[in-house]
Amino acid sequence: MYRYDQFDHQITAERVSQFRDQVRRRLSGELTEEEFRILRLQNGLYMQIHAYMLRVAVPYGLLNAAQMRTLATIARKYDRGYGHFSTRQNVQFNWIKLQDTPDILADLAGVEMHANQTSGNCIRNLTCDEFAGVARDEIVDPRPYAEILRQWSTFHPEFAYLPRKFKIAITGATEDRAAIAVHDIGLAAVKNAQGEVGFRVLVGGGLGRTPVIGTEICDFVPWQHAISYLESIVRVYNEYGRRDNLYKARIKILVKAVGIEEFRRRVEADWRYTKDGPCTITVEELNRVSAFFTAPDYEQLPEHDAAVAAQLCDSRAFSNWVQRNVKPHKAPGYAAVVLSLKKTGIAPGDATAKQMDAAAELAERFSFGELRVTHMQNLVLADVRQTDLFDLWQAARELGMATPNIGLLTDIICCPGGDFCSLANARSIPLAKAIAERFDNIDFQHDIGEIELNMSGCMNACGHHHVGHIGILGVDKDGEEWYQVSIGGAQGNDSSLGKVIGPSFTFAQTPEVIARLLQVYVRERFADERFIDTVRRIGHTPFKEYVYASPVEAAEGLTGEEYALLAAPYDTPLYSAGV
Amino acid sequence: MVIKNKTITNDDWNVLRLGGQDTPESVVVPPGKVIVPLKVWQAQRDALHERAELGVWLASDERAEDLRDDLDKFSVIAVDFPKFADGRGYSIARHVRARLGYRGELRAIGDVLRDQIFYMQRVGFDAFAARADKDIGEALKGLSDFTFTYQASSDEKLPLFRRIQRGSRS
User: Fold this and answer.
1) Would you call B169 and A3 a contact, using CB atoms and an 8 Å cutoff?
2) Does residue A369 come out as left (phi exceeding 0), alpha (psi in the -120 to 50 range) or beta?
3) Out of B119, B138, B146, whose CB is closest to A11?
4) Angle, helix A429-438 to helix A510-524, in steps of 10 degrees
5) Are A29 and A577 in contact (CB under 8 A)?
6) Cβ A11–B84 below 8 Å, yes or no?
7) pLDDT band at residue A575, thresholds of 50, 70 and 90?
8) How far apart are CA B18 and CA A571, in angstroms?
9) Mutate to test the interface with B, among A38, A161, A251 (most CBs of B within 10 A)
10) Which residues contact A438 (CB under 8 A, 6 or more apart)?
């Protein structure tokens, strides 16, 4: 993976000093909260209900063991012993004190990490295919481009005060595992007929209040021009994006308002000034960065390991895990392994400091010391010898990270929701836990097969509910939490937005609603048809009719309180002058 | 006082802002060194043309291109930041420097604060009228927050990877 040179180190260190001074000036009252708010956001620091939350960047989802251990240390030293892996491949710490943040950022800088631009109206941390570099369907390894674009977007002087946040995702494989169609800019690295690398560029996708699937603005931007082309898109957005209404300020609204042809015309008009200029990426720079992403020293191994075949026969639990959590690898005899952070009873994406340390150790033992964070909120060991799968499975099982549910019903994407987030209308983690508990039976889950259940606690859609095969959205009705259920959403190559099935449900009704949707699916499905394909084939009506045919009983005694987080009172005020 | 060429200096320019009753056509431009709104320049260009020293300022929703044919008329071009979080001024400055090739004084006015002026300097501003209620000496420190920068902009014509020998995998 990429390693900092002296310039990366110095830039990161100076950022820490800058923020340390900003915090000092805030505490002394020199900076007002309004002036400070934007500065702290651009350093990843949110104010939530109970405390500050610090969102640490995991650039394009890649971590080494030392970095993971530092996250564990931060969880222990400054937080409550755990962290939360987010859908943007980042890590969030929920119980942070403002006064500690400069030291945390300094600890992070020591292992080449930061929290730059993980919030605020600027270019956010880039996200990427979690199987980049090892996927069999990869056309181009996107990681060198992701790093080049990370550097370009870091402290870009022109784009720190955009109308709204700006998210970029990049992939280089046939299958889109980075949800590029629901990003402000989606990049798919491709090769043209001459074998040259370039990017298919989508623009104006996004979730939130107004979900939109991105539109192609260019089918091939040669890689040399990636920076200048992206700069033109962001510049046009900076100039023309709406600033009068927070909810209409994303680039998707601008693209819709002027139309893709006019938007493209403006981008190309700007690009004429800069194309082939100094921002053109050089072969030397691409080679320099690419050298950090060469394949590790793989052993020459047979395609399949005979011992694994025997282990699969011996242990049904192991075979379930291999079936769901082990993914194909381009190198013979290797596999990519997903460590599930979706164990029933645990908030989706949460990991304790102990698990983080242990995951770092597993990475060193089994996967060349590297890990990835997935946008589905799990971890990946990307380069595991098949021979080691059984040992790894046993070790992961002891850590509670081997639930064989990747891509299944309980592999729920979930935002922090009302337990933490001041924007939320409803809690999401307790409902995710209640649903996971109800459908905990792994045989049932394997029978249902691939399905994505995504849940957001409000319409800002951090839990990507629009693109869940089943989406759940928390809504507020007269101060009570209700949940709106949609079906038919999907991410990836065949992205679509879900449609709401009807009036919303209470917390206690929602697990039963999911059960009824699954009953219709089981009744209607063809042999190997996935839930989403059945929905697409038969439409919403059969699902809707069945769910609403009879009153949905509230599960007895289910209030959500038993799944709630203990929101222990925070022992110091969020902020008080002169602390 | 303004920051100019990285030092705090006295300044005798006055920024003309239209009041509620004023129109670009009717407003009286006082004598002396005045930075007028773009719209006033456009409405009164014949009269203003005669002045020995004149400045113009762009609002954040105005376009640098509107000054393309008039650059040599102005001793200073200013860009207004109505709120520091309104980032349009950064792209305007970039256009004034890169597209129009303007080399004279480019001044940031309005909600100009210490924590933004590093980026402002990068996109081409060389003068900063820091907000009056803030310590201008503090603001000056903001110009030296970073030693190195990744991108090409108005201050550095080349991105870091063309400017300097970067470290490679050892």
Assistant:
1) yes
2) left
3) B146
4) 50
5) yes
6) no
7) very low
8) 50
9) A161
10) A511, A514, A515, A555
What tens digit of pLDDT does each residue of A40-77 get?
999 999 988 778 999 999 999 999 999 999 999 999 99
Of A157, A227, A284, the CB nearest to B90: A157
Query: What are B63-106's pLDDT values in tens digits?
Result: 999 999 999 999 999 999 999 999 999 999 999 999 999 999 99
User: What is the predicted ipTM?
Assistant: 0.97
Q: What is the pLDDT of residues A302-332, one digit of tens each?
A: 998 889 999 999 999 999 999 999 999 999 9
Q: Which residue of A2, A6, A7, A9 is the best one to mutate when testing the B interface, meaning the one whose CB has the most B CBs within 10 A?
A: A7
Q: What are the contacts of A558-563 at 24+ separation with CB within 8 A? A: A558/A434, A558/A507, A558/A508, A558/A511, A559/A507, A559/A508, A560/A427, A560/A430, A560/A431, A560/A434, A560/A481, A560/A507, A560/A508, A561/A430, A563/A429, A563/A430, A563/A431, A563/A433, A563/A434
Q: Which residue of B has its CA nearest to A241?
A: B88
Residue among A189, A176, A183 nearest A233 (CA): A183
**What's phi and psi for A496, nearest 5 deg?**
-150, 160
- pLDDT at res. A240: 98
- Are the Cβ atoms of B160 and A7 closer than 8 angstroms? yes
